[in-house]
Amino acid sequence: MNIAPDHVRLFVACEVPDDVKEAIGGLITDLKGRSGNMVRWIRPEGVHVTLKFLGEVPVKQLPAIKLAIQEAVVGHAPFELEFSNIGTFGGREGLRIMWVGVAGDVLRLEALVRAVNAALAVVGFEPERRPFRPHLTLARVRDEIGTRQRAEIEVEVGKTEIPQSSWRTTQVSLMRSRLTPQGAVYEVLATFPLRVSQQVQA
User: Fold this and answer.
1) 108 backbone dihedrals φ, ψ, rounded to 5°
2) Residue 118 Rama label (left phi>0; alpha psi -120 to 50; beta)
3) Could you tell me if 138 and 163 are in contact, meaning their C-beta atoms sit under 8 angstroms apart?
4) 110 lies in a domain?
5) Contact 81, 167 (CB under 8 A)
6) Domain extent at residue 62
7) What's the CA gap between 128 and 106, in Å, rounded?
8) CATH number of domain containing 100
9) Closest CA to 83 of 196, 7, 165
10) Looking at the domain assignment, is residue 201 inside a domain?
11) The dihedral formed by the CA atoms of 10, 15, 20 and 21, expressed in degrees to the nearest 10
């Protein structure tokens, strides 16, 4: 997929700490034994909770995007998240994406997503119409895999045990995605700490 040289492919996300990435890596190893090479696995080091996908954006729009995200996070305190269930998203042909659900302070996470959507709408990005379902993507099923095989993979996914893992979300990141033959590679362009507004000091 070719992107114009003056454009970047962007999304807004909450990253996760290294121990959570290690837990995801172990989960992927387990799932690989069940579904083999029929899916494209994510790199555990790149796992994140996506808040909003922006798509291909002109580089000149970056300052406005960063300012909008900065305004969105004001007044949002850090919060705790944890793994919940393992699940899938489907298409017309069946299973398409495997993911781990996110639980914990989901109401705070949802409030942050609404704020990010509202702030970015001001600078020209359509608010997301689909319900927000917080998750960590594990894998995408290859396009050539048939419906029956997708169903078999889904059954195996349902048998997988989720490790216990929790973490504290302290910032929002603006991420760049580069698409390569080996999969997407992510780069952090800017981070925005979560903190409640400080009181004016006397």
Assistant:
1) -70, -40
2) alpha
3) no
4) yes
5) yes
6) 7-193
7) 17
8) 3.90.1140.10
9) 165
10) no
11) 30
∠ Cα 78 184 168 (to 5°): 15
The pLDDT value given to residue 202 = 37
Question: Would 200 be classed as within a structural domain?
Answer: no
Altogether, the residues listed in the chain come to a count of 202
Phi, psi of 45 (to 5 degrees): -70, -15
At residue 154, the pLDDT reads 83
Q: What are phi and psi of 8, to 5 degrees?
A: -135, 150
Handedness of CA 131, 132, 135, 138 (dihedral sign): positive
Structure tokens at 157: 């996914």
Q: What is the DSSP letter of 61?
A: G
Whether 103 maps to a domain, the answer reads yes
Instruction: Note the pLDDT of residue 198.
Output: 54
Residues of the chain where predicted confidence (pLDDT) is lower than 70: 1-3, 36, 91-92, 196-202
Domain count of the chain?
1
Phi, psi for 193 (deg, rounded to 5): -65, 140
Smallest CA-to-CA distance from 49 within 168, 193, 182 is with 168
Residue pointed to by tokens 């790199």: 43
